[in-house]
Amino acid sequence: MRKTRRTLIGLVFLLMSFTIASVSAFVYESAQQTITQTIREIANITLQNSALGDIEEGETKSYTKNEVAELGDAISVVTTKALVYIHLNSDLDTLAPYYSTYSIAVKFATVPGGSGHSAGDLACTLTLGSPSYSSIDLDVAGSWTFDFEITTTAQSVLADQPTTVTITVSAESTA
Amino acid sequence: MGALDSVDELDAIMEAAEALISPKVSKAKSTPMPKDKILNKPRELAQAKPTGDDLIRSDEPAEAMGNPIDNVLPASTDQSSSLGSGPIDTISAKPKRNLGGKIPYLFFFVAFSIWLVSLFTVYLPVSGLVTPVYPAVIDGNIMIVFIGSTAVSFLISLLIGLSKLGR
Predict the structure, then answer these.
(1) Alpha-carbon distance values, A112 to A10, A121, A141, B118 (Å)
(2) Complex ipTM above 0.90?
(3) Three-class secondary structure of residue A92 per DSSP
(4) For residue range A113-127, what is the model confidence (pLDDT) as tens digits?
């Protein structure tokens, strides 16, 4: 009984030692990759129409963070140096057959002191025709957040209509 | 209270103590121990560890245990308490603990704690669980602490595990 217990404790400690080594290797590798990356994905946002509510054919609806809380501070990033560029890539064009209008306005919500931008300024607009944008310049180091404002006009409303938009946000630092 | 009284009391105590001990001694004498038990006795005594009951009993005051000497001594005598202190001290003496065997575990606990803290410090900014920081900056000193604590906790854990399995 005592020997079994001792063996179990020994195995637990051995397992723990290998776990420590594995986890540390993974974390070290991730940290090194992140430090050396010049472009890094900082957010992956999914917008679903079900969250925006019902829409009728031909109806135009606008949504802000006042109606849908998720649209407030949709993107947030802390920059540690000046001149960081934000790129947005979306699959908004896949919804072109179903919507006559689908635009996502990206606005500055929080701007660090000393920046040329102001809170509430329009940073860029993603539309069915131009679903990606390059690039929003973050001119000073600090904490940045962005709000989304969406305007949609449904061309048709079908039961199996795709309703999801995915926006990938990446940051780039040239220096 | 004279010295003669205290001598009489001491005699009374000794008689009472002999009366208490003698049945066990006579019983031990009456049943001879087998030869193999006699040979193994020192080993058994060496391996015997204090049980939880023993520890509790040793911490209890002698009065609570019903010290037989206290029953014999007259309650009014001041010398009785000083005379009874001998056996009480031997009962309340705590068993020595082997701290040497716990040092590796202590080192491992310290190293593992440092490793956990440094792990979160290094990994949280790059994990995406909190607001992303770009470009990510990890302090070189924290990285050194992380690598060092990894090595130490890995080695100690490995050695403890191997020693446990090797016994």
Answers:
(1) 54, 13, 7, 29
(2) no
(3) helix
(4) 999 999 999 999 999
pLDDT tens per residue, range B39-79? 555 555 555 544 444 444 444 444 444 444 444 444 444 44
The verdict on A2 and A28 lying in the same domain is: yes
Are the beta carbons of A111 and A68 closer than 8 angstroms? no
Q: Which domain, by its residues, includes A54?
A: 39-173
Nearest to B67 by CA among B15, B17, B14, B5: B17
Query: Is the same domain home to A106 and A27?
Result: no
The alpha carbon of residue A57 is apart from the nearest alpha carbon of chain B, in Å, by 38
Residues A20 and A81 in one domain: no
- Count of domains observed in chain A: 2
A143 versus B87: the higher-pLDDT residue is A143
Cβ distance A23 to B137 less than 8 Å, yes or no, reads: no
Residues of B at the A interface, defined by Cβ within 8 angstroms: 112, 115, 119, 122-123, 125-128, 131-138, 143, 146-147, 150, 153-155, 157-158, 160-165, 167
Report chain B's terminal Cα–Cα distance, integer Å: 62
